[in-house]
Amino acid sequence: MSRMRRTVSLLSFALAATSAWAFELGREGSSIYAAPGREGEAKELSHYLGKVFSREFQVKKAPQAVTPELAGIFVGVKPPDCDVTWDKTRDCSVRIVDKDRVFLFGNDGKGMRGTANAVYDFLERFAGVRWLWPGEVGTVADPQKPVALPDEKNVYVPPFRRRLTNSFPGRGRSSRDGRDLSEWVRHRRVGSSLDSHGSGFQHAFASRFPRQKYGKEHPEYYALVSPERWIGDPKPTKPMRLSDPMMTGPWQLCTSNPDVRRLMAEKLVAAKTDVIQSISPNDGYGFCECPACRAQDPEGQGIGDGVYALTDRMFDFLSDVAWQVYKASPRSKVGLFSYSFYDKVPVREYKLPPNVYLSCCYLVYNMDAKKEAALAEKLTGLAKTGAQIIGREYWGTHYTMRYPLSHSRKIDRNLKLLYKIGAAGIYGETGRNFAARASDLYLLTVLAWDPTADRAAALQDFCEKGFGPKAGPVMYKLFESVEDCVEKKIEVYDESHCKAYAHYKNNYAEFNRYLTTIFDDAFSKMCDRETKKAMKLADTPERKARIAYIASGLNFAKLVTEALRSFEDLAAAGNNMPLTMPSDNEIKMEKKTLMALAGRAIAAENDRKAYSTKDHGSCALTSDVRSEALGLRPWGVMAQRARLLLRADRYNYLVNGAFEYSGYSWEVSGDGSFSFTTARNHDADDCWMVQCHHKQGISLELTIPPHGEAKFRNLRKVSPADPSVARVSMFVRCEGDPSKMVDATFGGVALKGFDVNRDVPDDDNWHELRFTPVNVPAGDHEFAVTVRNPGDAPVVVNFDSLDLRIKKAEVPEAGLEPARQKLDKGF
Predict the structure, then answer these.
(1) What is the pLDDT at residue 692?
(2) Which domains does the chain have, with CATH numbers?
(3) What are the pLDDT digits (tens) for 619-642?
(4) 602 phi and psi, to 5 degrees?
(5) Contact at 8 Å (CB) between 694 and 677?
(6) Alpha-carbon distance 538 to 368, whole Å?
(7) SS3 helix, strand, coil % of the chain, rounded to 5?
(8) How far apart are CA 514 and CA 494, in angstroms?
(9) H or E stretch including 467?
(10) Burial degree of 349 (CB within 10 A; 0-12, 13-18, 19+)
(11) Of 820, 822, 716, 720, which is closest to residue 777 (Cα–Cα)?
């Protein structure tokens, strides 16, 4: 145990034994004396004590000297001859009861609210006040009998210096929600004595080294990236530096470059501050593949096809920069994410200076026991590097779709682990949808303030205070049942529950599928049954309102599940729905069926949005506009687009025609080899979240030996209900005229193709191949492509943006039968 931890432990307990029960809170009104600047806390204390005890507690200005005969409650005032001292860089709250006087004060330095925290702790302990969630409904200040206070001296220094700072994002809030949330955060003693620029760990390469400033003169500062791992258009034909500000997609620095390291250190030192400053990479991929960077990756790690383990190279960068900063300015602090592709314990040993803070990013809500143990081992190992650890968790963001994903037991174990390894604090993206997550977020603040607190006791207190002695036990059982449901499903869930995962290895999409299996109809029925039972037992309007608030979050789960399932069906019907896994349902590719599917998705999304924007109470189900934008989850827009295209007969009936789900719904056979590659791509689909994680911009690549032949076919048959006209187009990347190599058939009919831009292919040698329209009868029809290599050398051919459109024949001919013979494919 460190010296600091021993100090905290000693200060965290009452230091003086009870000598008398002299101060009776609420027996009669007491004067509250406020020190200069502490009038706000004094007025709050007066307000809540007045509500609880039905007495007047008058606020007065504190005298310069507190004489022995002056009784009352003193806010921000130290008692005479007080021997309490504290570390000025840490939070500290003090409560002293001395006969007929109570003193509440603390460290009110920069970023610290010691006096306010002492007041709120006092109100919770002795007046029964609770701030369960933001707003009036979530505030409990029930009448109670007077309480006798023992003489005591209690000094508390919270072990975590950072407690959820930057945890509640501000986009899209109403003014009421913003006010109520700010008050709740203050009352729950959220805060930080660790000052920082932003979070201290935010993605920083773009702000430290803007390409507009350095890119032209120093391209060597930026990552060298090969075409195989290049994200964005246009793709290069050979490795290039990501130095041009016009280049799309994520980008990083060349972290092995000595000048980059030197300049990074100089920038931090020049700031002349002791706050944490970030040197974290930009979000997403685009890491450097130059020999110097790759030499820092231990054997078996580094950059590979689908596997990126870059921890050691980032620790090498961190160690060098941090030591340069420390030698020039020992008070300057350096912050780095332990995140994504660089979130492991380094293989090599690094001796880090004492100015390093490491933000360890992880998610515990979808961890089984084995994964939790691995996380504990990792956090313990990272703490041994000498860095000061800060846990960064996603305790309930848009990533969880605002589901009631209760996991307070995992939160409890995680915070107790951080406390055990001496972590400097915690923060994360908790969201602000309290109807769905009120109990978890409340418990999170309890444990952030005191990680030794008992989780079950805190949850019981939450339920008893919020819902009353009769309904409280029912709500407690409900919260525990929700958590049981989540835990049991996590223990048995694996990738086999999701057939499409073999093709679309996107963890966000897989997790959305997993969420719909948890929050199913049985879950909704259980929640409805228990909340109705609790509502009957609730004995005041306020307690009934709180149950209704929680019920709104539970009911929302049913609407989210319906929307997600409809989006998964749209993906299975051929729409590119970013971060959505195609369902396992066999969708009939026929206009009427697809129109109904799109209509169902639009209705489900409208129901979800309408319910979330309804006034269920402050911060209940606040809409997250950013998470629903085109760059992240454009599902509602994509559903509307599908219906518009169907109405206009411009819908693509080929499932996954752009291969953004790689091999989903395609079968490839024949000579040579094939892959779904990111090295070459034609379509311009751009979802920021997918793009950043290297799963976008895909084409089918065939390598065919001399005189060989390969074939690929769409596994989902197209099923027009009436005789129709079919039109097909595709983009092919190859040398020469693709119409000489490519045969396409639909419904057994050979299609006649021609190269639209034969004489003027685009910069990356993509050719647009169109086919003469063909009449097809009603029924099920298969689409297939055959590729021949007539030459004496292997050829590489890429396919992308395959499109098949169906339009009902306006004047069907009697006895229409399409020709079965192959047509001349020449132009």
Answers:
(1) 76
(2) 3-157 (3.30.379.10), 480-647 (no CATH), 666-808 (2.60.120.260)
(3) 999 776 667 777 788 999 999 999
(4) -65, -45
(5) no
(6) 36
(7) 35, 20, 45
(8) 9
(9) helix 455-492
(10) exposed
(11) 720
User: Which two structure tokens, joined as six digits, stand for 385?
Assistant: 């590097």
User: How far is Cα 266 from Cα 643, in angstroms, rounded to an integer?
Assistant: 55
519-539 tens-digit pLDDT: 999 999 999 999 999 999 999
**pLDDT tens track for 727-767:** 999 999 998 889 899 999 999 999 999 998 877 767 678 99
pLDDT above 70 coverage of the chain, percent: 93
Rounded CA-CA distance 327/666 in Å is: 58
pLDDT tens string 561-599: 999 999 999 999 999 999 999 999 999 999 999 999 999
User: Percentage of residues in the chain with pLDDT exceeding 90?
Assistant: 74
Measure Cα distances from 348 to 315, 345, 361, 386 in Å. Answer: 9, 9, 21, 14
* Interatomic CA distance for residues 496 and 515, integer angstroms: 15
* Separation of alpha carbons 504 and 581, rounded Å: 7
pTM of the model: 0.91
Residue appearing with tokens 């920038």: 267
HEC sequence for 686-744: CCHHHHHCCCCCCEEEEEECCCCEEEEEECCCECCCCCEEEEEEEEEECCCCHHHCEEE
Place of tokens 């307690």: 543
Six-digit token pair at 302? 């580094």
Q: What is the identity of the amino acid at 308?
A: Y
pLDDT at 249: 85
Position 94 scores a pLDDT of 98
Q: What is the DSSP string of 249-278?
A: S---B-TT-HHHHHHHHHHHHHT---SEEE
CA atoms of 617 and 620, how far apart (whole Å)? 5
Residues 203 and 206: their CA atoms lie apart, in Å, by 8
* Region of 803 on the Ramachandran plot (φ > 0 left; ψ -120 to 50 alpha; else beta): beta
| Per-residue H/E/C for 624-685 | CCHHHCCCCCCHHHHHHHHHHHHHCCCCCCCCCCCCCCCCCCEEEEECCEEEEECCCCCCCC
The two three-digit tokens of residue 811, written as one number: 């004047």
Residues contacting residue 506 through CB under 8 Å, at least 6 positions apart: 579, 581, 690, 693, 695
Amino acid code (one letter) for 4: M
The secondary structure of 322-361 as a DSSP string is HHHHHHH-TT-EEEEEEBTTB-S--SS-----TTEEEEEE
In whole angstroms, give the CA distance from residue 93 to residue 96.
Answer: 10
- Listed residue (639, 654, 646) closest to 731, CA to CA: 654
Bigger pLDDT: 817 vs 534: 534
Contacts with 375 (C-beta within 8 Å, 6 or more apart), sequence order:
362, 364, 367, 414
Q: With H, G, I as helix, E, B as strand and everything else as coil, classify residue 600.
A: helix
Nearest CA to 253 among 223, 226, 224? Answer: 223
The first and second tokens of residue 447, run together, are 């444990």
- For residue 265, is pLDDT > 70? yes
Q: Which of 289, 298, 284 minimizes the C-alpha distance to 339?
A: 284
Whether 648 has a pLDDT exceeding 50, the answer reads yes
Can you tell me the mean pLDDT for 789-801? 95
Q: How many CA atoms lie within 13 A of 503 on its CB side?
A: 21
**Which pair of structure tokens corresponds to residue 207?**
């702000």
